[in-house]
């Protein structure tokens, strides 16, 4: 069924691929991309685009009215590493933009919202392996605090005002079309670029830092799938745990070496190590599996093959 969709933050790592996937599914003209800056050629030329500041309620409302938007995907956010440098700016962007779309839905100007949460909602006191859907959440990062608060607000707007908001706790995302920016898991994308360019990579996390990760195709499938699920099956109105694979820098390097034997990794750990150390090592996604049928398709080997093949072209 065709519907009118707005993506805020469409030029970022997830937004770019999500926009292209939704245009494919719902028709180019029905999916309006927006961002504070212009994006790649594919995105700009394939459908409508608006320059839009996610913290400007009036500007978002104008776009929503103009295009008769029904669904909003809010992908604009400041990620974990940058947020540690600019705590107030991160809070203002991450929370202000969320309130803007929640209030549009509360006032019945849009019907449905997707908002991304993150494994960053968990903290140093959370069980690290197979982290459950509901457990201790004491995030120790600015980004994690904003995502955990956001989850509480989503749940509140759903129960008090009936807002249909859906959310996923994304792990680190690996993609070849658009690079991430400002995250702690970014190393798992940079490493493929450097493997092809220099046959060497200096990693800012230590060799045995294990983190939950996911290939972008799986993340997009999960996002489309949770948005297409019947409302009564969405039991978690905070956010769903989501999982595909977990690995360390040593393990991703070994998977690259199977294809580029001369590839070398060394380490120069920085402030991002402390962020990574506060996060889970693996995630239990059984609630998402049960409620709306989540199943990952990409493991580390398939991710490495796909990344190297596409980046080499
Ligand atoms: C980050 O590293 O900040 C993000 C995330 C895990 O949410 N990729």
From TrEMBL:
One Pfam family of this chain: Epimerase
InterPro entries the UniProt entry points to: Epimerase_deHydtase (IPR001509), NAD(P)-bd_dom_sf (IPR036291), NAD(P)_epim/dehydratase (IPR051225)
Domain NAD-dependent epimerase/dehydratase: 5-242
Highest taxon above the source species: Bacteria
Gene3D superfamilies the record matches: NAD(P)-binding Rossmann-like Domain (3.40.50.720)
Family per similarity comment: Belongs to the NAD(P)-dependent epimerase/dehydratase family.
PANTHER family: L-THREONINE 3-DEHYDROGENASE, L-THREONINE 3-DEHYDROGENASE, MITOCHONDRIAL
Protein name: L-threonine 3-dehydrogenase
Organism: Cellulophaga geojensis KL-A
Classification of source organism: Bacteria, Pseudomonadati, Bacteroidota, Flavobacteriia, Flavobacteriales
């Amino acid at each position: 069924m065709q519907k009118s969709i707005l993506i805020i933050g469409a030029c970022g790592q997830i937004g770019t691929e999500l926009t292209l996937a939704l245009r494919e599914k719902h028709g180019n003209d029905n999916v309006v991309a927006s961002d504070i800056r212009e994006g790649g050629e594919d995105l700009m030329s394939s459908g409508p685009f608006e320059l839009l500041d996610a913290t400007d309620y009036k500007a978002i409302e104008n776009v929503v009215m103009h295009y008769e938007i029904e669904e909003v995907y809010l992908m604009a956010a400041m990620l974990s590493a940058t947020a540690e440098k600019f705590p107030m700016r991160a809070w203002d962007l991450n929370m202000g933009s969320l309130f803007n779309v929640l209030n549009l839905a509360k006032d019945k100007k849009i019907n449905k919202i997707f908002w991304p949460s993150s494994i960053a909602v968990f903290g140093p006191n959370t069980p690290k392996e197979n982290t459950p859907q509901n457990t201790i959440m004491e995030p120790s990062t600015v980004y994690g605090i904003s995502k955990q608060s956001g989850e509480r607000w989503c749940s509140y707007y759903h129960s008090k005002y009936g807002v249909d908001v859906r959310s996923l706790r994304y792990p680190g995302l690996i993609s070849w079309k658009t690079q991430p920016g400002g995250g702690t898991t970014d190393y798992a994308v940079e490493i493929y670029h450097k493997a092809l360019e220099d046959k060497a990579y200096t990693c800012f996390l230590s060799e045995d830092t294990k983190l939950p990760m996911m290939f972008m195709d799986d993340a997009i499938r999960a996002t489309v799938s949770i948005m297409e699920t019947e409302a009564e099956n969405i039991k978690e109105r905070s956010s769903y745990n989501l999982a595909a694979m977990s690995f360390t820098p040593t393990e991703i390097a070994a998977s690259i070496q199977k294809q580029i034997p001369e590839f070398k990794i060394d380490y120069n750990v920085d402030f991002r190590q402390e962020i990574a150390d506060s996060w889970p090592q693996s995630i239990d996604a059984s609630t998402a599996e049960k409620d709306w049928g989540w199943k990952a398709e990409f493991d580390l080997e398939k991710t490495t093959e796909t990344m190297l093949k596409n980046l080499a072209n």
